[in-house]
Amino acid sequence: MDSIDKALGEIPLPPYITAEDVTFALRAINVHAAEQWPDGQRCRNDRATHPCRLHRWGRRVLAMRGLTDQEFQTMLAEQEAARA
After folding, report:
1. Distance in angstroms (rounded) separating the CA atoms of residues 27 and 4
2. What superkingdom heads the lineage (predicted)?
């Protein structure tokens, strides 16, 4: 965990998860994906240690919505296919 993570803590979750929150969460996970660096995995967007705050927030939102890892990986793949 980076020092900024320690200072800021986790991003708060919404009181209830809407379809729009799921869309934002999928985007956060996709944009803040892991990238291999010489010193280990880093967020490809902000270079923080992976998983960064937004990536963790996205996963927590999807978990609160009841989605499994496999389900949101499928949703991410569908989003990528729609953009192509």
Report:
1. 22
2. Bacteria
Residue pLDDT, tens place only, 46-67: 899 999 999 999 999 999 999 9
Largest CA distance in the chain: 39
> pTM score, two decimals?
0.84
Tell me the two tokens of residue 4.
């900024």
The C-alpha atoms of residue 59 and residue 76 are separated, in whole angstroms, by 12
Token pair recorded at residue 11:
């991003």
Answer yes or no: are the C-beta atoms of 42 and 50 closer than 8 Å.
Answer: yes
If the chain, 84 residues long, is cut into consecutive pieces of 10 residues, what is the mean pLDDT of each piece? 74 92 92 94 92 94 91 84 76
Using the 8-state DSSP alphabet, how is residue 34 labeled? E
**Cα R_g (the chain), whole angstroms:** 13
